Amino acid sequence: MPKPSSAILAVVLSLLTVLASTSSPRSAPAPARSSRPAAGGSPAGRPARSLLLNADFERSLSGHPWMPASWDTSTAGLPTVFFGRDSFLVHTGHWAINVANMSAAIPMGHNWSQTMLVGPEVWGKAAAFKVWTRSNGIDGRAYVMIQAYNDSASKMGRIWGVDHDEALRRLQINKVDDPLLDLAWKRTSFDDAMTDWVQREARIVVPPGTNVMFVRCGLVGTGQVLFDDASLTLQAAPPPTRYARGENLFAEPGFEAHAIAWDLAIPPFEDVKVEVDSTVAHSGRCSLRLSNFQNGITDTRIGAGQPFVGRALRGQHVRLSAWLKGDSLRGIVYMKVYAHGLKSRLAQSGAGEMLSDTWDWRQVSIEYDVPDDAEEVWANIQARAPAVGRVWIDDVRFEVLGPAATAAAATKKPPGAPAKR
Predict the structure, then answer these.
(1) Is the pLDDT reported for residue 299 higher than 70?
(2) pLDDT recorded at residue 13
(3) What is the pLDDT of residues 212-250, one digit of tens each?
(4) Percentage of the residues of the chain whose pLDDT score is greater than 90
(5) What is the mean pLDDT of residues 26-50?
(6) Among residues 340, 372, 347, 51, which one has the least CA distance to residue 180?
(7) Is the pLDDT at 301 greater than 90, yes or no?
(8) Alpha carbon distance 130, 127 (integer Å)
(9) Model pTM?
């Protein structure tokens, strides 16, 4: 886990914590709850059982001076990142955890996490991950998130007590052949610079086939964010939403609210930027700009996307469209729809029209038939990286056009066939 590299980092973080303690009062204790039985027969206010271990961070890891038991941290190898557990600012109890970062030169999602092995007992249930958070000088975005995976290496690594790469080696699976598959994904981001304690939530429905779940609390950018009193609870899931034909399924399609509803794909290249631009727009006031992504040696992608529950889109014909503008792009920008399912695995659409060089605002689109086993669908607008140039994205739409052609053909009545009764 990363450690502070100098006395300067420790001093700056101490100043940030003091600033937070003086900028807003400590949260008042929660009022006592009544134990009177509720209508359903259980005591009112009784919390649902949490699946997390050490959810209040009160228990220490044996042999470690400050690490909480059952939690882990991401590893970036950067001297600007600090993970801590202290008793100076807490929501309740004696301890809270925090992550702080002093430089955004190389953007990464520094996070606390907990891994859980699960099975059929949770499939089909709604999982709600809740955490109390406190922002302290954030410039960027913090987040809480929950992920459901079908991931043999992570499962066996947890059982064997080894990391993911060692588990792959023992399973005799090459990294490029790793069969891991994300089946559900929800990130709740927030960019409030300074706050008192606020409860955040990320919620998914756990798909069949999930064997590993991850919860994460993190920061992309600079500043400090504190976390306390987490919980992960299960309850009955509502039926999947059926989307209306022609409805734009994207939240914040014009990037007018800081792109906070979007998952941003930002490669760890020095000075790379994926940010809202309030000076250039196709309509409205803002667009999303991709820039400075030439300083990398690994072929990857940069852009933005949103995940959707695949069961609500199975057997549907969908269209993804966006207005794009480019400046001296020596690469390509394109769109993709990805559908993750246990049978079709990583199905994906074609890339459609790929743009490069310099062009004014142009609308591009792709269409795709969502497989019948889809558990998760991603709609992404992305560019190849590394590459020189800039790209702007605006007025994005993801919509259902009707039943997929294959599904329509399967249900079409053959000539002369008797009508169903």
Answers:
(1) yes
(2) 53
(3) 999 999 999 999 999 999 999 999 999 888 899 999 999
(4) 81
(5) 47
(6) 340
(7) yes
(8) 10
(9) 0.85
DSSP H or E stretch at residue 11: helix 7-23
Rounded to whole angstroms, the Cα distance separating 152 from 215 reads 18
- Six-digit token string for 329: 């792009």
| pLDDT tens digit sequence for 51-85 | 999 999 999 999 998 999 999 999 988 999 999 99
Cβ proximity of 114 and 191 under 8 Å: no
What CA–CA distances, in Å, run from 104 to 216, 358, 393?
A: 20, 28, 22
Contact 310, 374 (CB under 8 A): yes
Burial class (CB in 10 A: 0-12, 13-18, 19+), 281: buried
Ramachandran angles phi, psi of 338, nearest 5°: -110, 135
Q: Taking Cα atoms as reference points, which of 386, 243, 376 lies closest to residue 317?
A: 243
pLDDT at 245: 95
Using an 8 Å Cβ cutoff, are 96 and 86 in contact? yes
CA distance 250 to 265: 16
Token pair in block for residue 81: 């990142």
Compute the distance between CA of residue 114 and CA of residue 411 in angstroms, rounded to an integer. 45
Q: How far is CA 384 from the centre of its chain?
A: 21
3-state SS string over the chain? Answer: CCCCCCHHHHHHHHHHHHHHHHHCCCCCCCCCCCCCECCCCCECCCCCCCCCCCCCCCCECCCCCCCECCCEECCCCCCCEEEEEECCCCCCCCCEEEEEECCCCCCCCEEEEEEEECCCCCCCEEEEEEEEEEEEEEEEEEEEEEEEEECHHHHHHHHHCCCHHHHHHHHCCCHHHCCCEEEEEEEEEECCCECCCEEEEEEEECCCCCCEEEEEEEEEEEEEEEEEEEEEEEEECCCCCCCCCCCCCCCCCCCCCCCCCCEEECCCCCCCEEEEECCCCCCCCCEEEEECCCCCCCCEEEEEEEEEEHHHCCCEEEEEEEEEEEEEEEEEEEEEEEEEECCCEEEECCCCCCEEEEEEEEEEEEEEECCCCCCEEEEEEEEEECCCCEEEEEEEEEEEEEECHHHHHHHCCCCCCCCCC
Domains (range + CATH), the chain = 7-23+51-236 (2.60.120.260), 263-407 (2.60.120.260)
pLDDT tens digits, one per residue of 117-141: 999 999 999 999 999 999 999 999 9
Show the tokens assigned to 262. Answer: 């979007």
